[in-house]
Amino acid sequence: MLFPLPRCRQTGGTLAAAGALWLALAGPAPARPLPPDETPPTPVGRGGTLPTPTTLSALPNTLADPADLGQHSWLDHDSETLGILYACRAGFLDLVHIRNAADWALNLQARLLRALQRGEPGLDVEGADRGVRLHLTFPAALRPEERETLAPDLALQLARRYAFVLLDWHEVATWYGHGVLPFVSERPSAFSVDDTASHLVGLDLAERALADPQRALLPALTAQLAPLLQELGVQPRQQTTLAMERVRGLWWNPHRSWPANSFITRRQVDSGHPEQTFTAWQVPGLTACAEQPAAQWQVDHLDHWAQGRFADWAQAWLSPGAPEILSASFGEDSPQRRTGRLRVPEDLPAVLDEVRRRMREELGPRADQPD
């Protein structure tokens, strides 16, 4: 029997016939408060890669060995295994994105929990990208008894939501040409088919680590990663290579290489609605993955956790420091452009719709579809 993923749900019977995989129970895993010496630091990013056999011209890509995942670390990533994996139910995954997402979720959970238990009115967060800030407000303090009973799980669900916002915005900014490498475009990596699924797996990893009663947080992250990937049907390296070759000429262009944006011809963009399910893209025709339905996730459970009381409880604004993105998404005279900020997640769907429109215009009318 599978240990259920907190957000990725497993289906059976009629749902399986519909092709949906649900690997989790309806409710989230309970979170635990962290002692001060376990509070995760502000995440330090890791450099990701692409779901292709090569990256720069003929330079071989980094494919991860699922039998050797290394040790999770906050700051010194030399102990970690990084690279691309293929999982039957989740498609291509990037360990960099999984680990980054887990770090962000745990950092935000600790900070949100502290704010909720102290009765503070909100929280300011500096994103991983330069100039990006997230401002959260709470309409009222929790009741004293709720600060112990509800606060850890509420902090976790809020952390899932807003960590995903920050990660999603990074993909948006990358599409528009923002990046950390001077004079080199990172646009091919924006919403590549491994990104969003990896972020959601990372949120689940964070939730599992918080629910681990036997281990401190870092050992829990290390211990929980392998079984989580196994439940998603992770494959050995040779199957990852085979999966990449099966979508040659469809999801990636073998006549291009990084940093050409046309190198990655298909991108998977989420809806921007945290309550809607996100379905992984599977590579068709892999014998090792025959008849294994695709994984589906929700970003968080706020729409029905605690009877939905907290679905719209927190209010959040993202100040991205990118007026050109706000202009493209909402117009020059829009409130978002004038104030330099947008409501999240409420305004994200419009931003992502514009990204999709531009992708289709640049990469082709099926650029946001798997086939």
From TrEMBL:
Alphabetically ordered keywords of this record: Signal
Keyword Signal carried by entry: yes
Signal peptide: 1-31
Superkingdom: Bacteria
Pfam families referenced in this protein's UniProt entry, alphabetically: DUF4056 (PF13265)
Keyword Signal on entry: yes
InterPro entries given in the database record: DUF4056 (IPR025130)
Ranges for region Disordered: 31-51
Comp. bias intervals (Pro residues): 31-43
UniProt-recorded name of the protein: DUF4056 domain-containing protein
Originating organism: Ideonella dechloratans
Taxonomic lineage of the native organism: Bacteria, Pseudomonadati, Pseudomonadota, Betaproteobacteria, Burkholderiales
